[in-house]
Amino acid sequence: MSQQIVYRILDANLDRAREALRTIEEWCRFGLENVDLCDRCKQMRQELALWHREDFRLARNTPNDPATGLSHANEISRTDIQALLRANMGRLQEALRVLEEYGKVIDPNLGAAMKQLRYQVYTLESNLLEHEIANVGQIRRQKLQAASLYLVTMPVDNIVSVVESALQGGVQIVQYRQKEGEDNVRYHIAQQLCEVCHKYDALFFVNDRVDIAIAVGADGIHVGQTDLPVATVRQILNAHGGDASQYIIGQSTTNPQELAIALSNRVDYVGVGPVHATPTKPTKAAAGYDYVNYATQNIEIPWFAIGGIDERNLEEAIAVGAKRVAVVRALMQAEHPDRVAKQMRSLLSQ
Asked: Once rounded to an integer, what is the mean pLDDT over residues 320-328?
């Protein structure tokens, strides 16, 4: 009887390990397009298959397994590919440890083989992490290049639900902008916004506060002309965020002179505006469409027209060359942010 129980444990964990490996292998193949990592996953799967004896399979009793209906909230969704890979790598390592320990009861060679596989998986995890780190910046910049609708937040009640509604309508980038308030509150809001952005595969930036951006796992930082210097932002990111090249850095500009500064800072994108007078920037005079037209002819990196743009005047900005826009009140104060965002995305895609 006890032998049959061990067989069932080995059968279940061989299946679990092979499933986790296949999930990781698919990302190595299609996501990273890395033949070496893909081949290593395949070799380990095949070795596990060789140890999956028929008597293990015959001991399977799924209908009477009391744990088949158990699940955890963390298993219902994955925030991003990195979370998916971490979950399956953990699942794989746990399964191999179970196979190693229970394998010793049946066949010492099985236990020894699983131990060696477990060490191989540790190396695979390190290599995969290296590739993912190198790939993060590239993926983020591809999303930036593809984005046309960018939401900059303002303080409102139920900020997270407002932002989520806008994301449902098609917003591709969200910047959390909150100049005042307690850091603890700002951190928790940023954390929630980051999670909801990644749920919808959108980029999440933090205005000015590099520390909060790093702490919540943001994709980038946005600074104004009088905020922290871009070089200092990069120093902080390198010191505490791992590698500044993984992060997107954007900067506001209101005229050609500020644009020249931003471009010399080698930022990833710039804001162009305010196109119209706006209470968000009460001390800034409207730059008007002349500056948008200038940006059209002089900026090669992604740029976003910003300042009083909404669904009613968006076509005017598009007519003078804006292909990407950033909005604040048009979405944050909308009764139905999802509908407005959908309308604006539709206009930008024409």
From this structure: 97
Residue 334 has, within 13 A of its CA and on its CB side, a CA count of 27
Q: Cα angle vertex 219, ends 218, 222, to 5°?
A: 90
Give the catalytic positions in this structure.
Answer: 177, 252, 281
Yes or no: say if 325 and 317 are a contact pair by the CB < 8 Å rule: yes
Q: Is 96 helix (H, G, I), strand (E, B) or coil?
A: helix
Q: Residue 257, Cβ neighbours under 10 Å: how many?
A: 9
Biggest alpha carbon distance in the chain? 83
Question: If you write DSSP's letter for every residue of 168-194 in order, what string do you get?
Answer: HHT--EEEE---SS-HHHHHHHHHHHH
Does the pLDDT of residue 205 top 50, yes or no? yes
Place of tokens 């804006």: 322
CA distance 194 to 93: 29
Q: Which amino acid is at 82?
A: Q
Q: What is the DSSP letter of 68?
A: T
Q: What is the DSSP string of 212-272?
A: HHHHHT-SEEEE-TTSS-HHHHHHHHHHHSS-GGGSEEEEEESSHHHHHHHHHTT-SEEEE
**Has residue 196 got a pLDDT over 80?**
yes
In the chain the beta strands, taken as DSSP E runs, fall at: 149-152, 173-176, 203-207, 220-223, 248-253, 269-272, 303-306, 325-327
